[in-house]
Write a structure and sequence with these properties.
It holds the Pfam family HTH_3. With 119 residues, the protein is mainly alpha-helical. It contains 8 helices and no strands.
Length: 119
Amino acid sequence: MINQRIRSLRKERRLTQTMLAEKVGVSAQVVSNWERHYTSPDLDDLSKIAYALNTTADYLLGLSDEKEDEMREIKLFLKDKGYEKTVIFDKEAWLNVQPEEINQIDNYFRFLLQQKHPS
């Protein structure tokens, strides 16, 4: 499964094996071997592959069907806007939030999006 997911994401991202290899720090032959299932990436390379392909290790391993690493994209966007650490990413704060409060937060975000992009 990992070999198929590496190959399909690489192609979706319009990367050659050489381009992916450069991002991961291996040779194009190593990428080719992964994709043909001759070898498997080690844990360090798996993390680098996931980062290079903007996905998660869970997706590559078949533990999730979510291709995109949306949380990373959101964090990078906020960081680019000057927000280093927001309460949105404070795990301890979220552990105390009740389900009805999560619904309110979700509804508020939807309201804000509708204000920005009325249909």
